[in-house]
Amino acid sequence: MERKVRAAQYGCGKMSVYLMRYLLEKGADIVAAFDVNPAVIGKDIGEVIGYGRTLGVKVSDIKDADQVLSELKPDVCVIATLSTMADIKTALTVCAKNGVNAISTAEESLYPWISSPAVTEELDELAKNNNCTLSGSGYPDMYWGVLVDTLAGSLHKITKIKGISSYNVEDYGIALAEGHGAGLTPTEFAEQIGKFNDLNSNEIREKIENGEVTPSYMWYQNGWLCSRMGLTPISQTQKCIPMTHDRDLESSTLGMTVKAGNATGMAAVVTTETAEGIVIETQCIGKVYAPEEFDKNEWSFYGEPEVTINVDRPATVQLTCANLVNRIPALINSEPGYVTTDKLPNNAYLVKPLNEYINF
């Protein structure tokens, strides 16, 4: 592509500060931005980013996105709002309706075929009809996906892959902390969070697809890994296990002291059995951290040879944004439809501006 990539930013919160800066520094032009927050609407994106100067593009109300995208026809829209396909369906729909390629940070958007198949199929058809591509990316795309697939390629035999990723619920607000059961007694946790732990594979999948059970981030990730590695899942279950600490912990997010023995959060454990005999067991641990704890990501491979890799203290927000921006050329070059990143080439560091990697 001889001209610069023209981008729109949908959602101008914390993530967008990095997303828009990375877009600009990779040679894109940001031609539109949208948000729902009255305190942000009308601001120049230079102010949102913290550039100290105006860039000539003001944040529009999200309700005007359809009209703006229709008029400007950007090459790509970056969606950074909430986490589920239900949350971002409107954003993806307005992009697809206007033939605008779109990529989202929403965790479920990475591989929604096994959690929201009806919505994904609807969006897939709309994108194909309007010759654009929809997808999702972020930190899990690389550190729970591509990294695992790449390491697997160095092994002779695999019988099991085990992944553990942890994060501090204090960093993500009260809704997420409460959703992880932080502050509940063991009895309360069992009644409110763990009540679906005994469901079999078919039962849990049905409840997830019906919206009765919230899937763990690893629910999508196991699906992504199976697809990428050519594995055939025959069973997938999810259990929510309370995490505890032997000392009282203060939670500023919850505004309370989490007593020793009560839930500081939970580990959502997703286990996938495959026809090829490889078991994938992944844990997503969200909890109120003790002073000595920190974010980490660990993957272990069992078979021949056996290997474990650790990523400690990952800069999750920045890694999410950089990985997503680096996905944009492959997104635009892809066939139309809802195309998950397991179907795209592995990300590579972009030495040149974005437009120099695009085929049209």
From TrEMBL:
Which SUPFAM superfamilies does the entry mention? NAD(P)-binding Rossmann-fold domains (SSF51735)
User: The organism sits in which domain of life?
Assistant: Bacteria
Q: Which InterPro entries match?
A: DAP_DH_C, NAD(P)-bd_dom_sf
Q: Name one Pfam family in it.
A: DAP_DH_C
Q: Which residues form the 2,4-diaminopentanoate dehydrogenase C-terminal domain?
A: 146-352
> Under what name is this protein listed?
Dihydrodipicolinate reductase
> What lineage does UniProt assign to this protein's organism?
Bacteria, Bacillati, Bacillota, Bacilli, Bacillales
